[in-house]
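Justification of computing resources. Each target in the renewal requires a structure prediction run like the one illustrated here; the chain below, 192 residues long, is used simply to show the kind of job we budget for.
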Amino acid sequence: MGQPRPVEQISADEYLHGETFAKVKHEYVDGRVYAMAGASERHNRIALNIAFQLRGVTRGSRCGVFMSDMKVRERSSNIFYYPDVMLVCDPEDDHPYYKERPCLIVEVLSSSTAAIDRREKWRTYRDMPSLKYYLIVDADQVAVEVYSRSSEGPWQAATLEGGEVLTIDCPPVQAALSLEDIYEDTGLALPV
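Resulting structure tokens:
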């Protein structure tokens, strides 16, 4: 039996440089690089629906809405992820390839990413001081988990129900999201 091969690690700068030329996106966790799989049509529609609603209220403001090609960086853990949707309202968070101070992050679940989105990414995201909202959106059924916090309080968990509207308050903007907005044109039956 051969000897195990050591896992090669690279620096964050090497990762960022390589990512500008990569044909496949990669996430970066403390020196290790992980290739990302493609997403389904429904996954893409859900992310686009959310981004569309957010973009409508951010026009003319200092806030930016980003989809899965913009990285989020968590500096203390040395991690870069590609969230499905991200809202950033800090004008000083201006790096052209990643953001560090999002107000909202949305991950749309797939069977291959659900465990990572719920555990690993949530552990990373909840320690980001700027983050006020983390949404986990199921792509196979109508289900949205909402984690939110005020500036003084702990994280609160809720489920977005039919007929409810989630207000995203990221000064200077406020956005409203409903299950109807999120799952529009996905073929999934909404609760009555």
